[in-house]
Specification:
single chain; alpha/beta; 3 domains
């Protein structure tokens, strides 16, 4: 860091308040407590500027640091450090000691700044993570519905591959609403209607009223979450294509990557050019092994799992999909690795390889080309509806014009 630091401020941020410690090279120390609200943050800003503070540092605790960073970043250097890195230094644990400790690290330039995304990109990433959480909640409810059916010894999953697919939901909704089984079966797709007799055998056992009541609630919750996920995906794809159209097209050209996974990677990684190499990006994502070295002994451990959990999750999903693509270089790589290190580790190795590939493609602005005869088919992209943004004054003007038209008298009417 080229900045000469003579006075630093360390923040220990909590949900309702924050402890600030101002340290000087001369050894002077000042501690204050501020409320973590709009008034308290403005008071802290005024105090930091009055004290001519060179740097403000804090831990990346949840999203508590966001309003503080956005308020101060235009006036003083704000560093948000990784909490795990700071805790590597041993010290006693109280709020005041934490605040002073962070100030000491900042004063001695011992905090590595975390990457801070713009406000609009943080909001975009928030949509992606909310969708991820909703998918997890939906899975929990589906598992609960499976438990209800299993407890009643109602084994519909022996006949249908996915009981929560289109046909499965139609069957479950039908029995919950008391419809005739033959009428429900007539509405199913031709492939499933071939299993008519097998489905009837499953329905020889009736579900209890209590089970039907609980199952109906689960199905309604699943449908509601599906609708909200669809709304989120429209917002996610709209932002991704408007702001990262080229990156989306490059990522989609790779095996195993679709529109959704491409959007998630962009949301979690941001600007790929922030990293000097694909290996640095893989390290930031926590998909590289831990290294232990002492004297002549060298050992690789499990992956570090630093960085975004959502990014690592989607990368393993991408690697799993890419490993199944026929006649592709990635599948050949996966098959070689599987023979030596096993399936699970081979998936992680493939995920890391994909990270280095997409870093190279995006930084070099190139589309994916496979050395084999592999060719990715066309992906049916989601239709993006652009939302027209208007100001408040324009909105009021439109409403006034509407009222004027409605109140206008028809000259033909007496």
């Amino acid at each position: 860091m080229s900045l000469i630091i003579t006075k630093s401020c360390g923040l220990d941020i909590h949900k309702r308040f924050m402890i600030a410690t101002m340290l000087c090279r001369s050894g002077e120390k000042t501690q204050k407590r501020f409320n973590r609200n709009e008034e308290g943050i403005l008071d802290f800003k005024s105090w930091a500027l009055e004290e001519h503070c060179d740097i403000v540092a804090c831990e990346s605790t949840s999203d508590f640091w966001v309003p503080i960073h956005d308020t101060l970043s235009k006036h003083v250097l704000v560093i948000v450090g990784n909490a795990r890195d700071m805790k590597a230094y041993d010290h006693k644990k109280t709020d005041k000691i934490d605040s002073e400790f962070i100030a000491q690290l900042a004063l001695n330039d011992m905090i590595k700044p975390s990457r801070i995304f713009s406000k609009s990109h943080r909001e975009f990433r928030g949509l992606v993570r909310l969708r991820h959480n909703l998918v997890q909640k939906r899975t929990d409810i589906k598992n609960q519905a499976q438990t209800i059916l299993s407890s009643e010894m109602f084994h519909l999953n022996d006949v249908l591959t996915d009981i929560f697919g289109k046909n499965g939901r139609m069957i479950l909704s039908g029995i919950c609403s008391g419809q005739n089984l033959d009428q429900v079966l007539d509405k199913l797709t031709p492939n499933v209607r071939k299993k008519r007799e097998q489905i009837k055998q499953v329905f020889e056992r009736e579900l209890s009223q209590n089970a039907l009541f609980k199952l109906k609630i689960c199905l309604e919750l699943i449908q509601n979450i599906d609708d909200q996920i669809s709304n989120l995906e429209n917002e996610i794809f709209s932002y991704a294509y408007q702001n990262y159209k080229r990156e989306m097209n490059i990522l989609i050209s790779c095996p195993g990557i679709g529109e959704l996974s491409a959007s998630i990677l962009i949301a979690e990684i941001g600007d790929f050019k922030d990293f000097s190499s694909g290996d640095k990006l893989a390290s930031w994502l926590g998909i590289v092994p831990k290294v232990y070295q002492s004297a002549d002994k060298y050992h690789n451990g499990r992956i570090t799992k630093r960085g975004s959990k959502v990014a690592r999750w989607v990368l393993t999903q991408i690697a799993g999909a890419a490993s199944k693509k026929k006649t592709s270089t990635l599948k050949e790589f996966f098959n070689r690795k599987t023979k030596t290190i096993g399936y699970q580790k081979a998936i992680i190795a493939l995920a890391r390889k994909i990270v280095t590939i997409i870093w190279h493609l995006i930084t070099k602005d190139e589309m994916y080309e496979d050395e084999t005869d592999y060719h990715k088919g066309d992906i049916q992209k989601r239709k993006i509806v652009e939302i027209l943004e208007i100001t408040v004054d324009e909105g009021i003007s439109i409403i006034n014009e509407m009222f004027a038209v409605l109140n206008k008298k028809d000259p033909d009417v007496t």
